[in-house]
Amino acid sequence: MNDPLGSVAVDKARGGVGAPVRHESAHLHVRGAAPFTDDIPELRGTLHAGFGLSSRPHARVLTLDLAAVRAAPGVVAVLTAADIPGENDFGAILRDDPILANDTVRYVGHPMFLVVAESVDAARRAAREAAVEYEELPAILDIDEALRQQSFVVPSVTLERGDWAAALAAAPQRLKGTIRLGAQEQFYLEGQVAYAVPREDAGMLVYSSTQHPGQVQLKVAHALGVDAHRVIVECRRLGGGFGGKETQPAQFACAAAVAARLLERPVKLRLDRDDDFMITGKRHDFRIDYEVGFDSGGRIAGLDLMLASRCGHSADLSAVVNDRAMAHVDNCYFLENVRIVSHRCRTHTQSATAFRGFGVPQAMMAVETVVEEIAQHLGLDPVLVRRRNFYVPGVRDVTHHGMKVEDFVAKELFDELELSAAYAARRRAIREWNAVNPVIKRGIAMTPVKQGISFSTTFFNQASATVHIYTDGSVLLNHGGTEMGQGLFTKVAQVVAQELGIDVERVRVSASDTSRIPNASATAASSGSDLNGKAAQAAARELKARLTAFIAERFEVPAHAVRFEANRVHAGAKVVSFGELAELAYMARVQLWASGFYKTPKLDYDARTRTGRRYSYFAYGAAVSEVAVDTLTGENRLVRTDILHDVGRSLNPAIDLGQIEGGFVQGMGWLTTEDLVWDASGRLCTHSPSTYKIPVASDVPPEFHVKLYERGENVEDSVYRSKAVGEPPLMLALSVFFAIRDAVASVAQYRLSPRLNVPATPQEILQSVDELHERSPGERRVRPVPG
Amino acid sequence: MNADADSAATVRFLLDGEVTALTDIAPTRTVLQVLREDLGRTGSKEGCAEGDCGACTVVVAERHEGGVRYRAVNSCIQFAPSLDGKALITVESLKGPDGSLHPVQQAIVDGHASQCGFCTPGFVMSLFALFKTRSAPSRQEINDALAGNLCRCTGYRPIVDAAQVMYELARSIPEAKLDWMSAPAGSRSVAARGAEAEFAGRLADLERKDDLVIIHEGGAFHSPRTLSAFASLRERMPAARILAGGTDLGTWVTKQYRGLGDVLSIGSVAELKRTAVTATHIEIGAAVALTDAHLLLAEHYPGLDTLFRRFASPPIRNAGTLGGNIANGSPIGDSMPCLIALGATVVLNRGANRRELPLEALYLAYQRTAMEAGEFVSQVRVPLPQKESVFRAWKISKRFDQDISTLCGAFMLRLDGGGIAEARVAFGGMAATPRRAAACEAALTRRPWNEATRDAAMAALALDYQPIDDLRGTARYRMKVAQNLLRRLWLETGPGGGAVVTRLADLRGVLA
User: Fold this and answer.
1) Model pLDDT for residues A17-58, shown as the tens digit of each residue
2) Which of A14, A50, A605, B393 could form a Cys-Cys staple with A614, CB 3.0–4.6 A?
3) Does B155 sit within 8 Å of A700, measured CB to CB?
4) What are the tens digits of pLDDT across the range B93-121?
């Protein structure tokens, strides 16, 4: 090249797209210097709040005597529903979720009143002093009872394709059954918290740990009875969200803001862990009934599914969670003739809400159970049955909801993983082991994942961002997404750095703030990077265009001779640093900030027929897991997992790897140890980590091989052809569940199908083992090895 | 002004090299409250306020055998007076020799081992404790060290990797620059040793010459330093709560919002912090931490090693005591069935008097013991292993690590030829108290050790226990597993025992 600066030009800025950049706050996390909402220094006069909770699942409150609460030490005020100046509601879609229960409580844990005191301790102690007289009303606590009473939060929905009934009737083989899936608590390490600070002229600033500041802002405005422009909601980071901070933070923000307004003092409401468990919603538990007809090769001819979910006392997001479940019962399989009936059960329990996967994990458990049952029945390797039902591009490639599957890479992933994980050889070895080992049984399973990416609600698929360039060339980025650990701020900063040809360290991301970006969607549905990355890219490109035009004119070169590279800007033979350029542009009165907007193209979904292009694209993955089960106790260990996952072209492979591993382990928790137990009176008994067990370090398999799919590329024009990675990896954990099932099946020589529900706790597993023994008389439980 | 009285009521500890004094502190104020609310150090987080998530983990350093010993504890349930005379190290304290990140912190940053970052300070501190106590931990030891720290984001793999990388990073620091903080356990750096000796000296300067006594509106707090002082206080204050490690009492305050009234702490009583091995017994003082008691017991009964690794978490075992576990007598505690099967006795003191009871005789009914007013547990005595004895203990829980047992079974058989000369069987989680299984023992004792005896013993368990349904398991599951543990006992210790793989841990070893 003739360019004398050619050697410089090959230098790259640090941390662009595709680089394994560390999390933007990592250096602060490790020092304890990354403030979460409860760490923000408290303003003078700050008060602390705590809820008084219902102890009945369904009751009319006859008297609520708060005299002792008011008289307790340190108490400043006690609020009930009557004290809310505006609307007593924080409902996500329907207005059926009171901030404080009125005269009827609808679950054990329903907040009835709010104590405001000089200290957290004083508020919580006082909250226990209320004298409540209830008139008990009939309570529905589980799915079966809700189905019997036809108790639903929103109407049931049926989706059909093909003549499923005829296909079922004509199928050479038929099976039916039921599987039950338990709920799961999000267990974000940082509990729900809001800190409300009264501002001038009826204004309110709320620091909220929320995935959806815009919604919190609206709900606070409604509760206060003011316009939205008087309320600012800010969130720098969340200590985990996982869906649990999508709709629910509004309740705590509203309560804190109402108290702050009434007392004109800052009020903080931080739930203790037990209250967090008792008050907030979890992943929906499901009952799934299936009937499937199939041929002797295992191909599904017709499928009839009933999905009933426990939604709790209010609608919250249950309609969309269940819609998403209905849309994902296919996973990777072409369901030509299918009926799905979806019931959204109203019960007198916590209102089930978003949790990473949002109905998809349950849907995939439905169809994967069906596939496993077919394989069991035919004596085939389940992997074979999976392949026989895979989508086939150009032939069998339209989902049951009418969307064409354009890049079905699941098959390639599956083939590659089967080889790299030595699935077939290990499966043989495991069967040999099981033939001679009577106590410790081993199992293996390989499962695929296909998830549609986009909010199901089309209008949420929009985002905005702003990019500011200061005169020293440093860049401040802001967008509507929230940082909850998933690395969104890091990825979007990388996009901006890439566009401007500067080091990622030159780009700083500021807190999510409703006064900077209005009307932002929740950071949810795995959409954070797709939406905000594109919006920030648009803003950066606009700035780059302005700066290009400016410098082309200044140095009298054509625009195409301007390059932004390695923190420098080249204009023909002239080179200036990015900082110098910013200074020059400022002096020349060039606007140095821009906003960007993005809406996902091509979405075309007909909510009436529930068909059409509902998603922008699909994300894929596959996993093989091997377990060992102690058939004396039901205890089990995950021995090895291999994962191959498609993130398109990775924006940041280190962060993507973290999402995959973390999602997998979280899914494994749901399927194995995380056991939420409600007693007969509807009270949740497992309400803290002493009784509710999420995975710990030793639960991670000693052999854990996780790879990104190297040929991955988004066929859609996503940000740098990357794919969403927040939720899809969670479903990779289904391989663990089916490996356990495989191990259990060995006790009856694989002749019978185990009855195993979620979570597969040691007790559930032992019960399944014993039940198999009972169904296969003549098999002795423990057969000592001869000799 | 009475300087002595002031001194007696003031909690003093080292924090970042400075003596921090807490005066007029409520004795049940937690270390985490002091850090976050009083000192504005918000790096340590509250995730559960019951010592189960580890977000609040801090390290407490104290003098030990001429050096300094570092231990992770849960600051959320530790009462502030427990810091007296010690050094408190928090996430904000950590730094490398030149003020940059400490190798523990750097390893986490480099390894992408933080996501949301809320649990990270706790992991940093658990890893720092590991860094200062082990020089080259295995993966198993790392997992054990992290058993009390929950992370919901990462899936742990990068954190476990960071635990290995931190040593490599420390090795890259020039020796001369190492200080006590950045030098890992076993470091031969002269500079680091010098710095640590100075640290030990500063801790020695903090040592009390008087007893810590805090008179507070909620009740008095006494922390005597001698057994006789403790015993006489106990006689005078029979209604006072005895505070050992505080891992249970702490949660009374943080979870149940209860006042404790008067409190007598055994943590400073020198005689109760001792262990001894006599010709016949292992003797463990009531204030000996579970960590130390377990180490000693597992030395003599290797079969306890796995169970002890799964007993609570390191921060809980570092604070909690064997004496406290026993005096508390929870029906689901794991120490009691093991110790009862081993034939342990408990020593109860009152004033200058002492009596010794078989451990099983201590428990009368749910949360009711044979201790009389003014009495307290001073020591546990465990017989040394006898020839021809086999001992097995198994803990069954929903989650493998750091979970309260659904049930816990312990078995001691004295074998004589092909028969069982003596059997001691005890279970936790099967009744309202930890209890021996008399019918089961009878079915085993003086019988040949064969399938018929096994089946009879299994059937007899149904006479011994009527377990209940609760959130940890159904009665049916408990009974079934209890019986199956006898099956496993037979597979392992019966004739031709050991032919069958009976343990997941063994398998994981085979495959890994």
Assistant:
1) 999 999 999 999 999 999 999 999 999 999 999 999 999 999
2) A605
3) yes
4) 999 888 899 999 999 999 999 999 999 99
Contacting residues for A173 by C-beta, under 8 A, at least 6 apart: A293, A294, A295, A296, A374, A377, A378
In the predicted structure, residue B316 carries a pLDDT above the cut 90: yes
Contact B41 A439 (CB under 8 A): no
A11 and A566 Cβ atoms separated by less than 8 Å: yes
With an 8 Å Cβ cutoff, are A33 and B92 in contact?
yes
Query: Can you give the residue range of the structural domain that contains B50?
Result: 3-205
Are residues B121 and A128, on separate chains, in Cβ contact within 8 Å? no
Give me the residues of chain A with pLDDT under 50, please: 1-10, 779-787
Q: Using CA atoms, how far apart are residues B295 and B302, in angstroms rounded to an integer?
A: 10
Rg (chain B; Cα; Å) = 24
Residue spans of alpha helices (H) in B115-265: 120-133, 139-145, 157-171, 190-205, 227-236, 249-254
CA distance B342 to chain A (A): 23
Q: What is the DSSP string of B312-349?
A: S-HHHHHH-BHHHHHHHT-TT-SHHHHHHHTT-EEEEE
Domain that holds residue A746: 410-456+616-787
* Domain shared by B184 and B301, yes or no: no
Residue range B131-159: average pLDDT?
97
Q: How near does any CA of chain A get to the CA of B64, in Å? A: 28
Q: Can you give the CATH number for the domain in which A661 is found?
A: 3.30.365.10
Q: How far apart are CA A551 and CA A574, in angstroms?
A: 10
Q: What is the CATH number of the domain that holds B223?
A: 3.30.465.10
The CA distance from B394 to A602, in Å, is: 59
Q: State which of B341, B367, B383 marks the end of a domain.
A: B383
Among the partner-chain residues B94, B118, B397, the one whose CB lies closest to the CB of A189 is B118
Domain tally for chain A? Answer: 2
Locus of tokens 């985002």: A463
- What's residue A784's pLDDT? 40
Are A474 and A437 part of one and the same domain?
no
User: How close B224 comes to chain A (CA, Å)?
Assistant: 29
pLDDT for A303: 98
Report the pLDDT value the prediction gives residue B176, as an integer from 0 to 100: 85
Amino acid B10: pLDDT: 96
Beta strands at A338-346 and A104-105: parallel, antiparallel or unpaired: unpaired
Is A635's CB within 8 Å of B53's CB? no
Q: Which of residues 413-442 of A touch B (CB under 8 A)?
A: 437-440, 442
**Pick among B33, B59, B115 to test the A interface (most A CBs inside 10 A):** B115
Pairing of strands A475-479, A507-509: parallel
Contacts of B429 in chain A (CB under 8 A): none
B179: number of Cβ within 10 Å: 18
Distance from CA of B433 to the nearest CA of A (A): 20
What residues of A are labeled active site?
727
Burial-class residue B470 by CB neighbours within 10 Å (0-12, 13-18, 19+): middle
Helices (H), B432-503: 438-444, 451-464, 475-493
Give the pLDDT confidence score for residue B510 in this predicted structure. Answer: 54
Do A472 and A446 fall into the same domain? no
Which residue from B48, B20, B44 is spatially nearest to B33, judged by alpha carbons? B44
Inter-chain CB proximity A439 and B142 less than 8 Å = no
User: B344, B364, B383 — which closes off a domain?
Assistant: B383
Whole-angstrom CA distances from A480 to A40, A202, A230, A520, B189 are 21, 24, 18, 5, 51
pLDDT band at B188 (very low <50, low <70, confident <90, very high): confident
